[in-house]
């Protein structure tokens, strides 16, 4: 420990987590090998070639400066990464008010203002949301005026470094890189500055990185991560197309699989021979219209029954993106599978059947169109494309299209989608109209001038990948791979995974080693947040690992608990929720039975103030704070720490009754 | 359970002789016996005798002992009841005041002596000795990768085996692994059924699952039965009942028991009626919240106003260690009955009873709305806190 501190004092740049250094032996401190040096130099040059880095560099300095001023004005608040709200000694009611105000503020401000500032502002304004917002915005304005002064200041990091007497040769190479590249990287990928600080599950203090650079140089595979995950991300992925995960949802028989199958065929992802085979076989069992769906529905059961049962996946490329589609089942019985699929996606494609009567039945209460849309919204997906499918059966009537559009718009707005984030596209999966090429059908051409489905998908924004946060991978599949060990598949929610890393399998808390990583069936040495990976593990037994487990950073572990507090939004329920109500909780791919053990407070839906403490029951469309106990410990995170792991869905008897955000985790 | 004798004085004290005949009777006995009662039963005890020369020999002796019960253990899986306490009747081998643990055995008589036989206890004896109420149903709730093989008796739901297997998902080119995993899972469930379900006792076997798992499994099981020439399964094919459930977790049994086709088959079992009653309570809570209440305080107040129509109370509350508390609950039940209220004592071994337990263990549907109860919430808070 002492040596860490020693080195740390030498340099004072930002955000290296202490744990990055953990687990390196002392011997690794020796000199740098030539191959590593070349790697470093290469990295740098590669970044210089990225044109965007030049373009945006000016902005970036400003941003840095802003951060500096902010720190000067309110250093105490900004530096403490997360405040424990409980420490503020609030009453339950006040705490709930505070939380809801914070949520509102975050909705508007995003993550641009640190939480402590928010909390303080809310408190000084006595939970008045409007006032608090005003104050914060005004502050920000003032801040904006200041930057010019600060820019003239050289970046502090450099100064301190030159002042350092004891800097070895080895040290220098990485340092220079860090200074030159780091800021640019942030801009290339659109990272906001505060993202770098990372608000992991555990409060982190920004630490000196010098031990990290010095020590990790010896292990090539790990060097990258230890230096800076953001930088690594841009070097690895900067030149590639962005990965976009899109989940296809909708009522049963809306034509989800067929639409996707056809899209893949049009794009040439499916060979003619396979397609011909499917055509022949589907004809044989008298279901020729299913031939495109068979591209994604592979199991015998699915083909015979003609419905998707588990999430199918495939990929294709658009002009700017590499798109991975997750074809979710539409049948009500398979919603657990659909939730698993949607939990891995960035954006959603809602397919609705335009046939008269079919759209209505899917949209009515109990239809999957509604439930799916609510689910994906509750799972945090905000961008939605609506494919109005089978419009050929309505003779490409504009009237019908608008009818559906209006009905859905209203509903989606209620569900919480922003109007600007929802796009409607008329198309037909079976005929292939308006999928990859502009429409050729005369009837459609008359009134539709918008882009085709592929272009709409291409225009989706890829969310920011939290690569700098501690590693979290949720396991959604376990299978035997080729060779030694076994594979788990899942999505990296946070952080970076390198081949050879040690990961902690939670909640059983066993250490496993990553023997191999493959992304979309291609092996890779490194994977980043947002990727769907299958990881070959060794060191744990396949029997002990189950779906829903989390692979976590061994030092900054994911919290494991069986009891937590959540803020629930209750949907339409037939019977009210009371204390002791048994539910199934869906948390990522995990499904576990749980009980609502305490109803803490009923909140006002819009203002978030407490209407009633300890209510007897929760009725339709209410918002409440409750305690939930799961029958065995699971890996969860608070919503404000890791969004993806902080969401839960509650289902009873095949119906989703509520969605919740985890606000607190109890130690059990 | 067989009643051998019943000797109860006017003031409520007295003794009852009982012979448990099946495992469920142990559950009744568990609910009957409380701390402080005296139990007489035959048991085996290791006795050490010291001869005049000082050498000691120990041998096992079967003898009849009477103990004052101090602790009660019930193993729900094996249905064994274990009573620990001090010897209170002079015995040839065992000194007064010596500790002994009685294992109540099936088909062996025991005599239970209580200071006070209250109405709830007597009712329990009656239901336990009612021979008509034996209708066993087996249920298998399953989903891909998870199954519970359960036995539903009038007063208990026993999870006989839980099968939790991870099945690889379908993925491009690896469909076989998924199908292999599925077959392995089905095989495990089938073994569970064969091992834990006695086809000569159960009236029907409910297979419940979301989607097509139940159909697939049933097909698989019958194919296997034909393949291995399993007469037992083939002969009992008609006993299987395929029902929809939303998941493979235990509490989806509730849905299963509400299913029309199941209700028709097992309408006489307590389990189904309890589920129905609890459901109606929840419906009332939704439609007319002022007519449905839970928690002791609320229910007591409603009782004072003679407002109770149906009272649901978990038998767990009567097992509580605190004699006074039990008395309170018994008094509540008695007065509610007097007022013409339908009192149902839920078995905490059923899924519905489990849910009621979580819901403070006591709930009631009222005859007329009492909105004033709702308003008096503030002071009630501490009362409903059971955890």
From TrEMBL, chain A:
Localisation: Cytoplasm
Keyword field: Cytoplasm, GTP-binding, Hydrolase, Nucleotide-binding, Phosphoprotein, Protein biosynthesis, Translation regulation
Family matches, as Gene3D superfamilies: DNA helicase RuvA subunit, C-terminal domain (1.10.8.10), P-loop containing nucleotide triphosphate hydrolases (3.40.50.300), Translation factors (2.40.30.10)
GO terms under biological process: regulation of translation; translation
Record region (Disordered): 1-34, 63-82, 192-216
The UniProt record lists the keyword Cell inner membrane: no
Ranges of residues in domain Tr-type G: 241-467
Family: Belongs to the TRAFAC class translation factor GTPase superfamily. Classic translation factor GTPase family. EF-Tu/EF-1A subfamily.
This protein's name: HBS1-like protein
Originating species: Papilio machaon
Upper classification of the organism: Eukaryota, Metazoa, Ecdysozoa, Arthropoda, Hexapoda
UniProtKB/TrEMBL annotation, chain B:
Domain (eRF1/Pelota-like N-terminal): residue spans on this chain: 1-130
SUPFAM superfamilies reported for this sequence: Dom34/Pelota N-terminal domain-like (SSF159065), L30e-like (SSF55315), Translational machinery components (SSF53137)
Keywords: Cytoplasm, Metal-binding
Transmembrane spans: none
Subcellular localization, as worded in the UniProt entry: Cytoplasm
Sequence similarity: Belongs to the eukaryotic release factor 1 family. Pelota subfamily.
Protein name: Protein pelota homolog
Origin species: Papilio machaon
